[in-house]
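Troubleshooting: if your tokenizer reports a length mismatch, compare your output against this known-good record of 260 residues.
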Amino acid sequence: MAMRRAASILTALAALAGASSARAADPVPPGEGMIEQPCPVQDSLWFGSAYVRQYDWAWLCRFRAENESLAKGAPPLAVFIGDSITEGWIKLDPDFFARRYADRGISGQTSPQVLLRFRQDVVGLHPRVVHIMVGTNDVAGNTGPTRAEDWQNAMRAMVEQARANRIKVVVGSLLPAARFPWRPALQPAPQIAALNAWLRGYAHDEHLVYADYHTALAAPDGSLKSEYSADGVHPNAAGYAVMRTIAARALAQADRRLRQ
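Known-good structure output:
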């Protein structure tokens, strides 16, 4: 009994030592509390970095320097904000974003993270139109279990911010998906369809522009058509080509409303 107790104590001490070591290895913010420049060198930041995980949950540092540089010139005509589907768009279709469109997508993010950086990454850039497309990672539970109502409230809050600053809104549907490679136990197609039904109705009631990517990209079983994606979640170049046509039409519609 005594030997077992001693072994348990040693195991606990080892765990504490490991935790202390892990904490010691974490980066220390440059300063304490509220400071002028909390962001480390941009080259040291990436989605899974210790700094982002511990100190910058919404990754406000990701676009801060780029936003400051962009603010010195003419404002973008449109800002696209969202997750990896938005982030990947500019990489596979850069010509589309050469029209003074700013891409503010960050891989892996959920709607509360996007909401937290909405003021900085959208409102502060003073665009004419914002394109909001987020929710896939909410369904996947990337930042933990959540409710559909929480996603809806985040969408409402972003729309309200945009409207308060006279920015027209395009809401993009969630893309179809029958499975998530990083959450293989989930079957997300029915939830995605339900969220899109709500989003379409919300856009109608609030006089927003709804960009329906789901209908154009979905197979009958609710999956993303294989010709448009390699992993069933993220579009390839052909998928973004389809989305580009839908987005261009939606942005033009939003711009016409702005002129009325």
